[in-house]
Amino acid sequence: MHDLQKIYRNVLEDILSVGINYGNIKSISTREGDYADVARCNRTEKKTFGMVISTTFDIEVCEWLLKDDIPVQSLKDIIAHEVLHTCEGCFDHTGTWKEYAMLMNRTLGYHIERTTKNIDLGNYTPNYKCAVQCSYCGGVVTRRYETKVIKQPEKYTCPYCNREKVLFRIK
Q1: DSSP 3
Q2: pLDDT tens readout for residues 65-82
Q3: Domain positions in the chain
Q4: Which CATH number fits domain 4-108: 3.30.2010, 3.30.420, 3.90.320, 2.30.30?
Q5: What pLDDT shows up at residue 163?
């Protein structure tokens, strides 16, 4: 099993080394189970009179990511992705978050992306229960549960070819 705390500290050092200041992270922990998101960053805001006076973050990583068949670099990429969400203006995958991810990738050899599609997750195979397919390009969109795109695929654009009204349910 990989040492989560050690890898986390290493990622924090790497982020600081390229001049990125991350937010107030209270904890990093593991959670059990098979989730659609392999890790997540939870934000907690304290407000007074409707104004945010402090923001803290908790990062959760699926425990199966710590298995020895997952490359350490993949775990670092995932943790760095979540830590970048704690930076000012980076709670989504656009703008500053994207710039910081590209900086980490370019200068330190990370592979931070919006999704884990191109990250080596060893022998892990997610358990998808639902899927829709594009009748034009054949791209498949999978989900672990019935989301809006699964229930009404005709209302959505294919994320692969950007064509409208081409998705249909296959699973």
Answers
A1: -
A2: 888 888 999 999 999 999
A3: 4-108, 130-169
A4: 3.30.2010
A5: 87
Amino acid present at 124 = Y
Q: Kindly state the helix (H) or strand (E) to which residue 72 belongs, with its residue range.
A: helix 72-84
Cα 104 from Cα 101, distance rounded (Å): 5
Nearest to 91 by CA among 37, 28, 43: 43
Highest mean predicted confidence (pLDDT) among 61-65, 117-121, 123-127: 61-65
Alpha-carbon distance of 37 to 60, in angstroms, equals: 10
CA distance linking residue 27 with residue 41, whole number of Å: 10
Which residue type, as a one-letter code, is found at position 154? E
Question: Are the beta carbons of 18 and 108 closer than 8 angstroms?
Answer: yes
pTM, two decimals, is 0.76
How far is Cα 114 from Cα 146, in angstroms, rounded to an integer? 22
CA 61 and chain centroid, separation: 10
pLDDT tens-place string over residues 15-26: 999 999 999 999
